[in-house]
Amino acid sequence: MKRYIYGGMAALLLMTTVGCFNTKNEGQSNVDSTAAPKGGSKEDILVGTLNVVVDASIFPLMREQEEVFLAAYPNAKLNIIVKPEVLAVKELLADKATVAVLARELNEKENEYFANRSIKPRVFPVWSDAVVFVGNTKSADTSVTIPVVLDMMKGQNANNKKLIFDNLNSSSFRQLQELGKIEKVASNFVEGVGDARGVLNTVMNNSDRIGVISYNEYLDLESSFSNNIRILSVKNTIGEKADNMYYKPNQSTIAAEQYPLRRTFYVLNYQPNMGLGIGFSAFLTGDRGQRIVLKSGLVPASMPGREIIIRDNI
């Protein structure tokens, strides 16, 4: 005889939401991914088309989430719009997307647009990522401090190096700018090259460059550059967990808040009705979505439940 114990309240919520929907649609064919449930509308929590704008720095993980979600729910269609953070917010405010996955929530001014239309957002944390620094293996530097990086953004550079960002509209750029309370970033030691692969290519070919990308992007690309680049340790000098020790980013140091440049990502649902935004948000925050996060090397907002088999007889 076997008894099964399931953990994870997020998973229970997703199963309940999806289960209720599926009960109404038993026997519906999965051949047509846009087919509507009989007697119902063409849009529901697991049926229809959803435009989702995604921070470009987290796209490798979102690509996996999209693939699994669509395989599980063939009546749903996602249009993923990949943009750096500043442009992603503009897409949301221009009604080109109703759901976003970003490294911050909208501010009060940005939320006014939706409040004036009586749209109340549904916002949930989904995972933790980090801003990371990458150097050339020919460089003697194996670590960096946050004050040195911020000085470079202010135009003060004692080591003749240059910071290479994927995009000056990115969440990584914004996070460092806010951390240093820098009103205007100097351009003499800062450069944007378009995307994370461009950052690593630049660092690989120049030992006086320090690349700035997300940890998710680094994990996605490191195998292509592993012999020429290395991730730099960062001194933990900010926040309540500051201990002046050097840490490399990984799942453990991000979860333990030892790596100082971690950040939380959120799913922001501004869809005014009970549509596909609800179902996709529930998937990301539920057991299956959080397992994908864990497998990717990032830190889930809630640890996925585990199945424990208890045997009465051995």
What is the annotated CATH architecture of the largest domain?
3-Layer(aba) Sandwich
- The CATH superfamily name of the largest domain is Periplasmic binding protein-like II
How widely separated are the two ends? Answer: 10 Å
Number of helices: 11
Pfam family, one: PBP_like_2
Protein name: Phosphate transport system substrate-binding protein
InterPro entries: PBP_domain, Phosphate_ABC_transporter
Signal peptide: 1-20
Word description of this protein:
With 314 residues, the protein is α/β, with parallel strands linked by helices. It folds into 2 domains: 2-20 and 40-128 and 264-311, D-Maltodextrin-Binding Protein, domain 2; 129-263, D-Maltodextrin-Binding Protein, domain 2. The protein is built from 11 helices and 15 strands. It has helices spanning 9-24, 59-72, 85-93, 108-115, 146-153, 171-179, 196-205, 215-225, 251-255, 276-285, 287-296; strands spanning 2-6, 48-55, 76-83, 99-102, 122-136, 143-144, 162-165, 190-192, 209-214, 229-231, 233-235, 246-247, 262-269, 299-300, 307-311. Strands 2, 3, 4, 5, 7, 8, 9, 10, 13 and 14 form a 10-stranded mixed beta sheet that branches. Strand 7, helix 6 (171-179) and strand 8 (190-192) form a beta-alpha-beta unit. Helix 7 crosses helix 8 (215-225). The longest helix has 16 residues, at 9-24. The chain is globular and about 60 Å long. Mean pLDDT is 87; it is low at 1-40.
